[in-house]
Structure formats: structure tokens, C-alpha cells
Amino acid sequence: MEQDIRVIPTTGRNNCGGRCIIKAHVKDGTIVRLTTDTPEEADGGVPLTACARGMNYHTTYFSEDRLKYPMKRVGKRGAGDFERISWDEAVDILVREWTRIRDTYGPGSRYVMYATGESAVLSGRAFTKRLLSLDGGFLDSYNSYSSACVRQITPYLYGTDDTASSPADWLNSSLIVLWGHNPAETVFDAETMFYLRKARDRGIPMIGIDPRENDTIRRLGAEWFPIRPATDSALADAVAWVLYTEGLYDKAFIDRCCVGFDREHMPEGVDPDECYFSYLTGVKDGVEKTPEWAEKITGLPADRIFALARRMGTVKPMNILQGWGPQRNAYGEQASRSAIMLACLTGNVGIPGGSACGPGGYNPRPLPKLPPLPNPYGVSIPVFLWTDAVTRGTEMTALDGVRGAGHLSSNIKMIFNIAGNTLLNQHADVNRTKAILEDESLVEFIVVSDVFLTASARYADLLLPCTSFWEEENMTLPWIGGAFIGYNNRVIDPLYECRPEYDWLKEAARRLGLYDAFTQGRETARDWLRFLYDRTREESPELPAFDELRREGIVRYKNVPVRVAFARECRDPEHCPFPTPSGKIEIFSRTLYEKEFSEFFPAIPRYVSPPEGYEDPLRAKYPLQLMGYHTKRRCHSIHDNNPRLEKLDPQAVWMNPLDAAERGIGDGDMAVVFNDRGRLRLPVRVTERIMPGVAAIPQGAWYRPEADGTDAGGNINVLTSQRPTPLAHGNGQHTNLAEIRKA
């Protein structure tokens, strides 16, 4: 039998950092088993080994609930009532609505949803934007749901968000601090856990700061420091107070490389008491930011804060690896700034084994990319504010994050939701979003292309069945870090009447008279992939020929240098200045100090008590802080319909035993979690692995409302807020108050 089996290599292309290699063993057109990458095959590189999610792609995508045919809505939007149509009729409907809405409201009325179900070199979203650009343009977006705050705020300090050192350099650390970072479950990228395990095996001590004792903390044997959600900056302030008052900070570094820590290094013409050290010592507000002060806010005992600070001030080099969870809070920009502040205060920026914090991730070698066409409309909004652009688009201005114009010319009237579940499921405040989508006087036409009838796909007016990665060709690239190019070989022919987005977009382009400009003579995905890869080979001649990449399924760059971020700038800031207005790291930002904001935002990285945080009076009604986390059973919302993977981490709300006992709830009991935005029902997991006063629900569960509006799917976004963060206009979906009652 083995002689009749072909082994076809492909790679995972969902929005997962693992980018795993999957080898499909195929006999007579059927996958009989899967294997994955091994250390031997990686040949000294980082193995791209599939986890349980990767090894169950087939059980997810070959399930009976696949979308099979193009359909149009026949009932109320959101009810899930559709009628089968032909592809020819589907393209007719698409082009008719496309031109009607363009001619009625202008190009800025058309919007392509942020979506990550297809995270590869070629994507239906990118091709949709390409065709829209050829036809007058569209309302674009910036930011992401994952990292808006850290990517927007970091350049205010460093002048760039390119702040990452090579993961291989982490092995030079003497202490690693995982601050809100859980790569064992999020699969941040292939390299992160690989090098963290190596660091553990070398005996490098690790600390984990998180409201939950997450899987990464347990697997690496890190010391757990539990703090309340959205209080990261308060903890950082107290640590900084100890470092400052006990003389444990690196004064030589901050004098040489930073502005804004002390009175002597402030921008000219600014009150010296606006500096960070004056804030720590309470010069203006009379409150010293001591560990005792922070204990009341964070919930972490003062003696542990003292111990943490003294350790961070005396162990060098120290590497702070901050995940993206802390910056998905109501003042998430401040959490990111605070981590950078501590890296600077301890003098760990620009040295081997240290870190600069910031977004993390860099690609050390050229990678293929589909270049976007110029968008004639030229206006964009923060991705998290798309619902505002539906309801009050023409009222939005630069204070709402509008770029490219003083205001929007139209509300959003047409939405393309391609390979994504953010239209409803992954966006905050599901019930508000649901009401907006159901009102057909707002968005007049919604196109959805997906593999399943997800919670978002139910709101389509035109529902198109797309192919999975098993059924088409593409290329995958490192998600956050790494130096490789993976190839998606087609493993089986497209199922049912499923089609890649490029195919039906070509037909739409033909009817719009834009076919030649849209395709540029490239009829297939492979044509585009060959073209983009060969352009990359011109920059990197070491890459093998395209057909060899297809045959092997992966190409790894060799001899990738180990990078230490900002090494030159920190050694000699006079001759190698940072790309900031001052040429130094700006702990105090004059730009922010003089900027107009729609709400208060400080010029230094300090704690700001957030709405729906621990100190909000609303806790009298909703006493629990509710946060989400990434579960190992799903990639965001992908795989939620796979019962085999559900066993890995059944959907449940985590509660501390003290909170559960107070409410008469036992482990496994069904409970209702609720606030003013909605309610959901799911089992309770009673565990010491979450601190008192905090509850956590894994994000990504498919929304399944019952007749009374209660969500039986356990989707945390029924309860999360659409309140954007003040500077980045990002999502603060981890800052919520709620209550739990036994069902």
C-alpha cells in the first residue's frame, strides 16, 4: 500500500504563529494520514511541528457542515435562511450591488472586513481590495485586533516599532520575564516556545505575570506573579519606585539614551515636574507609587512587589517578553509603554540577553508579498471602529482615527467579509453588532466567502463557499519571527462547488471591464505565486527555484544572523540616534504632551485607572473582572466546530474557589455570566490557577443565541465592550466587569 501513497507537503495558513508543516499521505484522492516536521528534517533549524490543531485540520475541514454551494439570503438577515443559486447568478448579484452602491454612495461606502482565516501571501481580502482599487477605491483600515496599542505607541518611544531581538539571543539572558505572554497556547510563532524551552533547560530562571497561571507558566516552571487585569502599569510603577528609591536603576543608561525620566533630562520649555520620577514620588498628586499603593490596585502583595523589583534591578541581562494580552485593555497603550520603561530603567535595551519590549517579531530575510495597488479613495479608519463607520461614518474625524481626510464621505454601505468571523463573532459587544447588522437600512449588502456557516456568515446577503487550504495553492510566511517560506500544495480537488475567491473575483472583474488590469495575465494562483517568489529570489539568490519550493513544501534561510535590537543606538546615541524627535528614547513624549485627544492620555507611561477596571464603582453591581484568553483547542474561532479538539479545553469560565464558594457554585456547574451588554451560559471550572476577583473565558467560541438572547456557545464577546483605547483606537476587550450566578 505504501507504494500507492503520495506524500504531499503543505503548511497551515490560518492566523496561527506555528505555520506548521503538514504532510498529507494521499491514496486514490483521499488523505489516509498526516505527519509533520521533525527536528531531523529541520536540519538544525526550528522545527515547524504541528500541534493538535494542525494534526486535526482534516477533521475540521472535511466535516459535513462545509458550505457547498453559492447561496443568497431569502429570510431576515441573520436568520440563516438561504437559497441555492448558480455561480453565474452569484456574480451577477455581486456586480449589480457593487455598482449600485458605488454609484449611489461613492467608493468610500465599500469596506473589506479585517479577517484572518486566510493568512497567507495570497488572500481573498487582498484580491478584493485590488479590484476595488481599480474601480474607484474603498474605505481602508489600519491596526489589527491583536496588536493595535503596542504598534501605535512604541514609535512614540523608539521612533519605530521594529524592536525585536532574535529569539536565539534569549539564551544569553539571566532572567526572563513573561509578562502577559502565553505562547504555549497562543502558538505565538514557531521559535518562541522552542527557545524558551531551551532557556529553561539551561537553567535560566523565569517569571510569569498574568491573572491566570497559564500553560506557559506551568510548562516552563516559571514563578507566577498574579495581578488583576488592566493593572500592569500600576505594577510597573511600583517596581520603578523601588528601583529609583533604592538606587537600583541604570542611571548611566538613562542619562545617555533617554529623555523624560528625571528633571535634568526633559525637553526644553516643559515643566521638569512632568518627568516620570516626579510622578513616582508624587510631586503633583501627593501619592508615592509604592508597592503598598500598587498592592491595593493589582492584588499582588507588597512584599512580592519589593522582591520582584529587587530581582529585576540586580539580575542582568534581563529579558522582558510582553505578550499582546496586556495591551488589549482599556488603556492598553500604557501597559506597553510601562514594559518599555522598565527595560530602559534597568538598562537592558540594546544588550545581548536583554530586550527592548514593544511588539516583538521581525523577519530577517526578504519574503514574498502581494503589493497593494494605490487606493484612489485614500482614507482609512482604525479596524476596531468599523461599527462606528456604519452608524456614524460621516461624523467621524481625525479624533476618531480617520486618516487621509478630515472626515468620511459616507457611512459603510457594503461589506466584504472574506474568510473571517470578525463581522460578528470576534468583534466586541455582539448584541450591539447584531442589531447594527440586522438593520438593512445601515449596511445594504454583505458578501461573505467562507468554509462554514459561522456566526458571521449567517449575516450574509450573498454567501459564497470557498476552498480550504487543502484544495488550493498558496504560500505561508513566518507570522511573527523566523526565516522560511512554506508552500501550500493542493492536496485534493475542490469539494462540492467551492471556489477560491480569486476565481469569482476574476469573473466580477470581467463584467466590470477590469479583467486585464486585475489579473495582469496571471490566470491562476500559481501564476501569482511564481511571479512573487521569483521577485523575492532576485533579492535573495540563495533561494531555490520555485518548482523546488513546491516539491519540498518549505525553504529555510541559512546562516541567519542573531540580532540585538538597538545595539548601535544604545552604544552611541550621538552618532546613531533613535528615529525620534530628540534622537533618544522618549519616556516623556513631547508629541503626546502637545497632542489633542478626544479623551485624556498622559505623556509618560503611568497607570491610568480604566473604565470597568478594578477601581470602577460599577464593581458594586458587577464585581468580577472578566478577561479572555487564547485556548489551545482553537485558532481564534477556527476549529470550534470540531468535537475532537473540544476535549483539549472544554469551553468553561474559570473562577477562583473563593469566588465560586461565595456564589454557591461548584466545579462543573452550569452558570450564567452577565452584564449590561448580554448574558451567556456555560460550565464553571473552579481552579486556584486564577486569582480571586477575576474570571476568564477562552475567546473564539461560536455565538449561539437562544430564544431569550442568552448565548449557549459561551462567546465572551457577548460581554465585551466596544469602547476603543484612547490613542490607538484599538480594542480593549480584556477590560470588562461581569457577574456570575449558578444556572
Provide tags for this entry:
single chain, 743 residues, 3 domains, six-stranded mixed β-sheet, Rossmann fold, globular, Dimethylsulfoxide Reductase, domain 2, 16% strand, alpha/beta, Barwin-like endoglucanases
Write the layout of secondary structure elements.
Elements: E1 6-11, E2 21-27, E3 30-36, H1 39-42, H2 57-61, E4 71-73, E5 82-84, H3 87-105, E6 110-112, H4 124-134, E7 140-142, H5 148-158, E8 175-179, H6 183-186, H7 190-201, E9 206-209, H8 215-220, E10 223-225, H9 232-245, H10 251-257, E11 258-259, H11 276-280, H12 291-298, H13 302-314, E12 318-322, H14 332-345, E13 380-382, H15 386-392, E14 414-418, H16 430-438, E15 445-450, E16 462-465, E17 474-476, E18 484-488, H17 501-511, H18 515-519, H19 525-539, H20 546-552, E19 554-556, H21 567-571, E20 585-586, H22 590-593, E21 624-629, H23 643-646, E22 653-655, H24 657-662, E23 670-675, E24 678-686, E25 694-698, E26 736-742
Parallel strand pairs: 6-14, 7-13, 8-9, 8-12, 9-10, 11-20, 14-15, 15-16, 21-25, 22-24
Antiparallel strand pairs: 1-2, 2-3, 4-5, 4-16, 17-18, 18-19, 21-26, 22-25, 23-24, 23-26
Helix pairs in contact: 3-17, 4-17, 5-14, 9-12, 9-13, 9-14, 12-13
